[in-house]
Each structure stands twice: as structure tokens, then as C-alpha cells.
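--- STAGE predict ---
source: upstream dedup step, 1 unique chain passed
mode: sequence only
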Amino acid sequence: MTLSTDKSLLLVLAIWSGAACCGNAAETTDASVAKPDVAKLLVVDSDTVSQSRRLPSVSALPLSDNDVIVPWLQANTDRLEPEYLYELSRRLVDTNPAVALEWFSVARARVDYDESRCADPRTANNRAPFLSGRLARTVLQYMREHQNEGFGEAYDRAIQRKDLLVDTMSPLWICAPDAEGQPGGTAPAQSAALKPESEWPQIATALRDNLVWNRGSPIVPDETTVFGSIRLRRAARIWIGGGVEAIALSPDGRTLAAQSMAADFIDPATGKIGRSLTGLEPDKDFHWNSAQRIAVSPSGRYIGIMFQNPRFAPAAIYDASSLRLLRTISIPNNYIEALAFSPDDERVAVGSISGDVQIYDLKTGEMLGSNRARRSHAALAFSPDGRRLVSVGSAVEILDGSTGALLQSQSGDERGFYGAAWSPEGRFIATYSRDGALRLWTSSLDASETIQKFPIFATAASEDVFFSADGKRLALGIGSVAVVWELSER
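--- STAGE serialize ---
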């Protein structure tokens, strides 16, 4: 399957997944009757940090010990961190995939809940996709091989469970990491790591509402918003069945690209996977090679992928037809979080978490310009003439398209932004912020309008917003859905 040059839709998505029912954890299992080497690990520790650190040893136990481990996990699902539910899902997927997918969905929801109770959301840093890839690789692989069969039903069962979200264990395991990003941290850090318990019921209610919203019925097509001379008609909402990591509108309209085990290219009419990119180090596992951002050049000729690993992994540029790796781009000792192709396919801009912007000649690899800003860059997009870049992170900024120098800035949402796109005719900039708002700005940033405010928890996995090549559509990936608007003159 090759990428065409038709003016239609390419969605780039990252999928996290979810028949016998999981059942409620009513019974208990006495670990003393287990095999001696296994029993000493099957202990529920009131210290959730210690419990979290014990998980690798439990995960290392062979599947032949499932007759002891699975009942213990099932009996203690309300007393163990969500990581252990991923482990339960992994151990069940070969023998009872329906139950495995349900526990996978519960695990993902509980990770989101624990992240949402962190006083500083940056400490958790949206680790749910990271954890599912690291802890439940075989479950993700099962879903990929079976085209997500059964996941929708498992997700529905999960969100209807009374014990979906529980407060019987502390979220400190994810809210107070140490210097290496592992559970723990210092005592002072732990004491200030969580939101007040009085806020937890409201957080849980909002998250449940969002999970139900993700599976809601299709939207009413004729809902509209007006911004200046433009009318936006919300035309479609597509449930994907997993968390949407990133979406892109490109010249190709007949290919769905999904990041699951790496980056899969799917026929949206059949849902069948045609080709896949396996990452920069295909001999290593899915977690190592998982992508966190995917970009497609305006002509559909190039694909840019930002992988999570190795540490400070480079951005990789591929030929879209052959999927041959053309070059990699690195910013020393820094994480690349944003990538954009110029309209003429001659330049590529990358932005880092610490504020570096670098612009390269796509063919030669020569650096054409660089700039170090005070703010991080979560997304970049070139203006249609290629002379400017819009950057979003903690603010909306306009940069010089050749040097990366700052030209304009607008603070917007104090919590920052996920994605940005420039309309093809250059009149508007669309942004998606961490408060759940999709906004349309004038290209000079002197006016903006909120198109829609989404449930705040649906922002967790979302990354990108894009205009179609003809400027008549605007698309956003949020939670487990892709939402598309049609734009027209009033």
C-alpha cells in the first residue's frame, strides 16, 4: 500500500486497548499455599511505592505460575496499583482474551485517574500509553493481530464496572517519581505530590463522564460555530477504540496510519493493516520502538516519526512510498517533541522539550537555522508560504520559518497546548490546549474563538489538530475519538 497524492484524509493514531466478565474481587487467595519462590512476592504492601517497585519481580515469574499468580491478582485488584492490572491482562490474554481486554481497559482508566490526582500533572507526564506498552506488550500485540476484535465490548464492560475507579491505594507511585523517573521520590515531594482528597470524587466523576463520552452515539451533524466569516459545522465523530495519540490530515485520503506496535498503515475501509514501521531498533521490543508523534509532509512524500527510545531518540524521516529511512535528526541531550515539514518539502523543523528549534534542509541534512526559546515546543506547523512557524507549548508563538527566531507570542491557556495547525490559505491557526479547548486564531494572534470545549480528561492522549489540504475540514484526535469539522464561508 502506497501513499497517494489525493486530497483526502490521513489519520495518524496511537491505540491503547481494552466473553467472560472480569468479575469483582470478592474472594481472597492465601499465598502461603503457593510455590515458595512465588509466595514471597505475592504480598500486598500498604506502601504503594514499594508495591510498584516489586512488580518487575512478579512480571519475571513464568506463565507456568499463573495458577497461583492470576487468582492472587484477581483477588486484590482493588488493593494493587494499576500496573498490576496490566500484568493480570498480560497473563490472561492467551487463555481468556475477553477478560484480558477488560482488565486492560480498567488498568488504563485507573492510570488516568491516578495521573489526574497528581498536584503537578507534569510529574505523571501522561504515562498511560508508556505503561501499557511496557507492561502489556502481548495484549497490544494480540489486539493488533486480531484487528481490535472484542475491544469495544471489553471497554463497555469496563466503564460500567462499579469498581472501575477506586481510592483504596495511593497514586503516589505515579505522582512522586524520583530523579530517575521511578516511583518514590523524597518525603517532602510525596507530601506535596497529591491534590486534596476532597477533590477526588469530582475528579472520578469527570473521568467517568469522559469514558462514557468516548463511547457515546455519533454527534448531531448540524452543530455549528462561527468565527469571523467562517462557519464550522461539526460533521463527524469516529470512535477509534483506543486513545488517540496523534492525527494528521495530509494529501492522502485513503490511508489510516496507526501507532500500535510501531506505526501501522491501515486501509480504513477494511481496518486491515497493510504495512508497518518497526522503529529505529527493530530487534528491541514494542515499548522501545513506540512512536510519540507522527507527521506527514504536505506532498505525502515523507513521514517523520519521533520515537520514545533510545534516550534522547532522534526524529526519523522516511520515504513514504518505500518506508525507507532517509535520515535522522537529533538535538543533543534533549527530547524532540515536535516536527513539521515546510510546504515545499524542502525543510523540516524540530522542536525540543527545553525550547530548542532547529530547521534543516530535508535533502542534505544541513542545519539552516536554530533558536533557543524559554518555552518548550509541543507542536510546530509552517505557514502556507513557509515563511513562518507556529509553535505551541506553554504559549502560542510565531517564529521565523528560516531561523526559528521569535516574532510574536500569545499566552492563551496557562496549562499549555498540545497541538497546532495553520490553515492552507494562511488565514487561521487552530490550537488544542490542555484545558480541553479547540480554538481558532487569526494568523496575527490578535483574535481567537473557542470552537468547542471537550471533557478535560479526554486531553490525556491527544496530540494533534490538522486542516485538510483544501482547507475545508479540520480534524482533532481526542480521548478515543477523532472529530471532524467542515469549514465554509458564511
